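in:
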């Protein structure tokens, strides 16, 4: 069997547009293209001007077997496969390496060269493989750009960690060509739909408990974990209803979003729809207490009042109320703890009557609130497992896999 014959897997016939921007990692993209064509993918390459300082179009033409495009307004190129045709042709666009500059341009929707124009003009899924100096990667501007792209459902692959061409050590290396091949293969592999036919409801984000018309009590929950779970569950075939407190995240594809502010509203919205659900995941950081009275007018600062006491009353416990229903869905809760994680999580599991609880250590860096990564300890009545530090999308998939196993055991 020849090498090519041995690769007749998921990439055969796929149409992949590789965008190369200016970075030292560009030399690795020749290898990526070679591995993709070996697997019988059809690959077209687009280069930015600065990419050509690192690798020649001729090299990419040789490994892709197709002319390399690099200019937007080139009559000769437009007579071949024009840029709109190329945009329509692609099933997946992978920008590798994606420099800090290219990420910024993609995030702000510029269309001043061929690659950025194609990314705007194409309905294809966009994936970026960031590659840059660790300081540039860590800069809030780059992080903001990546967050914007991720919110628009751009796949962000990497970067990896390690020694950099400039001598620094840290995050910012482009993933290795074979790691990118794996991610591309995964993208083209039809996924099993273990949640097909299942109605799944989630709560996510913080709640806001009003004090007066302009003030409220709330918390730092970003909603990222709940939204990642909603996206992953929809991807795995579930019919997803996401009851969300106020967050700035885009609604994942295929998910029905119901917006609420207070714990009382979240409770009412969940209860109104819970009867149809087979699975309920309580990911929201619900305020435990709300002000007893909400002032009708703004509470004023007065010269004679140095102290103020706000009386709070307990909010309904949404997840406990769901778990107490006679035909309760498979119910999963979350626990955010700063200490004695296992003990508090197990206690919550039994006290609230849950089927499973996912606990995270909010005291640790990169865990929980507002972070893009998390690690979870998951407990059920007679077992437990650890899901190690990973980005919230990867973690969401792992948690859902555990949920399917235990949901199937139960029914
Ligand atoms: O008791 P504690 O707030 O630590 O429990 C956390 C779990 O309970 C989370 O799953 C959270 O979404 C849920 N919860 C709820 N309603 C509340 C408080 C917490 O559903 N009022």
């Amino acid at each position: 069997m020849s090498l090519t014959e041995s690769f007749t897997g998921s990439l055969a016939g796929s149409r992949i547009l590789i965008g190369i921007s200016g970075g030292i990692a560009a030399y690795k993209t020749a290898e990526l293209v070679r591995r993709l064509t070996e697997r019988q993918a059809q690959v077209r390459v687009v280069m930015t001007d600065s990419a050509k300082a690192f690798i020649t179009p001729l090299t990419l033409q040789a490994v892709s077997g197709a002319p390399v495009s690099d200019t937007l307004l080139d009559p000769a190129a437009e007579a071949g496969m024009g840029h709109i045709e190329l945009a329509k042709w692609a099933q997946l666009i992978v920008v590798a390496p994606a420099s800090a500059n290219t990420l910024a341009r993609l995030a702000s929707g510029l269309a001043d060269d061929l690659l950025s124009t194609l990314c705007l003009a194409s309905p294809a899924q966009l994936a970026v493989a960031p590659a840059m100096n660790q300081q540039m990667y860590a800069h809030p501007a780059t992080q903001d750009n990546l967050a914007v792209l991720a919110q628009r459902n751009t796949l962000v692959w990497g970067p990896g960690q390690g020694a950099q061409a400039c001598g620094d050590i840290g995050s910012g290396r482009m993933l290795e060509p074979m790691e990118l091949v794996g991610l591309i293969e995964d993208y083209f592999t039809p996924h099993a739909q273990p949640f097909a036919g299942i109605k799944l409801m989630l709560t996510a984000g913080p709640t806001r408990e009003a004090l007066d018309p302009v003030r409220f009590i709330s918390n730092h929950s970003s909603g990222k974990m709940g939204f990642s779970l909603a996206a992953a569950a929809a991807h795995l075939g579930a019919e997803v209803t996401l009851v969300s407190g106020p967050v700035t995240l885009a609604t994942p594809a295929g998910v029905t979003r119901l917006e609420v502010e207070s714990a009382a509203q979240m409770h009412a919205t969940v209860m109104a729809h819970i009867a149809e659900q087979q699975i309920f995941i309580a990911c929201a950081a619900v305020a435990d207490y709300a002000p007893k009275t909400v002032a009708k007018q703004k509470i004023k600062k007065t010269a004679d009042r140095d102290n103020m006491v706000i009386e709070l009353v307990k909010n309904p416990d949404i997840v406990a109320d769901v778990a107490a229903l006679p035909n309760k869905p498979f119910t999963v809760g979350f626990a955010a703890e700063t200490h004695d994680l296992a003990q508090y999580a197990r206690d919550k599991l039994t006290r609230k009557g849950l089927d499973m609880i996912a606990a995270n250590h909010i005291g640790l860096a990169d865990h929980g609130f507002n972070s893009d990564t998390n690690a979870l300890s998951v407990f059920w009545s007679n077992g437990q497992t650890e899901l190690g530090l990973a980005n919230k999308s990867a973690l969401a998939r792992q948690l859902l896999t555990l949920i399917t196993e235990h949901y199937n055991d139960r029914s």
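note: The radius of gyration is 25 Å.
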